Give the backbone structure.
Amino acid sequence: MGTRLAAVDLGSNSFRLEIGRIEHGAFQRTEYLKETVRQGGGLDEERNLTATAMQNGWDCLARFGERLAGFQPSEVRAVATQTLREARNRDAFLQRANAILGFPINVISGREEARLIYQGVAQMLPHSDERRVVIDIGGRSTELILGKGPTPVVMESFRVGSIAWSTRYFPDNQFTKKSFSIAEIAAKAVLDEALDAYHPSLWDTAYGSAGTVSAIADVLVACGWPAGTVTQEGLDWLMDKLLSAQSADRLKLPGMREDRKAIIGGGISIVRALFSLLGIKTLHQAAGGLRHGLICDLLGASSQDDDLMAKTVQRLAGKFGVDAIHGERVGKVAAQLFGQLMGTPGAPGSEQVSRHLRKLKWAAQLHEIGSHISHSDYHKHGAYILDHADAMGFSLSEMHRLSLLVLGHRGKLRKIEAALEEPDLAHQLVTLRLAVILSHARRDPDLAGMTLSRTGTTGRGMQLRCRNGWAEAFPQSAYLLREEAQAWQKTPWSLEVIGC
């Protein structure tokens, strides 16, 4: 039996579970579950998920979780997209959702979603150097990706989707020429900035992924149109059928599922807008999508994920003019102290420690990312940048963790007091703060004989010990370390400095 893998996609319209095995180096699907949850329609005026929307999501994830019983964490990847990107109360939903599913659910940025979509589409197409534009119209967002062969080049996510547009422009499920016209114009207004980046001269073939395009294609082929493609003529014919029916309740078309009737008007409007803006003549139905991209990531091994994340960190550091040499210096010092604090390699939990160590080094590389905005408050600006950056390879929660480390690497600890309840983050933060202090002169510090260890029975005590004479040799560093020890006394943690 081959290795089994599973991908969970929490979309705005549907939740999907893909399960399969790796046999002879290739992924073979063994099971596919899809439930129309329509969580994207459950956001209230304050952008909070309603109690009903949350419960529907939890009920679906409970069924998925039962099917995933026995899977290992390394065999499952679960992500959420636009609805949970928007939801103000997403943490309340995710806390219970993670427990119900049995695996962590990562909310990903729009561009990360676009990368995964393109990866999934390309993986299901023949290998070639074809220039492609890939379109994925979901319930609350539309992703556009320009790529060549297996490589995405331009990725963007737009806040326009079939649920959102149907709710806004077809509120009573009534189809009129005026409502289609207004919906299409509104979609063009949002998507207009894509015209230059995705100009027809930049791609040879257009592919459509996921629910909206598939729903349109399914109806067209059931009504005698060629399989696997959507054309302008087909769109015009389908819109005429909707206008003739006048409402979703009266719509009767072969291939049209009941759960799609209420959101087909918005979906068609967005597709028509894209055909017009990008000059699309034929949109080819793609077999792959987001969940296949997740499977590709699982197949690609963690080293490739880390490589993508490392490149993202380098890109951010370069974009904001970070002093790369100093960032690397702080990272080396922090890594040395973190290794001492966490114990020897090969100990239980060492794989998790290694992941925390990598992210600690990335935080060190980015700790001055906000310095070009403000010298005195650069840590606050840096945290804001990281919390709002589209970072390929990272989930929103992973970026938030980096932002907390950057925010907390200097100044009072009160501002991240709640986050210090997590021991791993507290250990990362103390080593980052110590590394910044020891490297304050922007040269390699003398760490000979210096050790950092855990003390006490509570697990929240730490001790930094220096060799004899170190404090006399480096009086400014010693003073800053003593100040740091006092700062930690105001938290549930303690830091004792001996000989420093």
Q: What stands out?
A: The first strand starts at residue 3 and ends at 10. The radius of gyration is 26 Å.
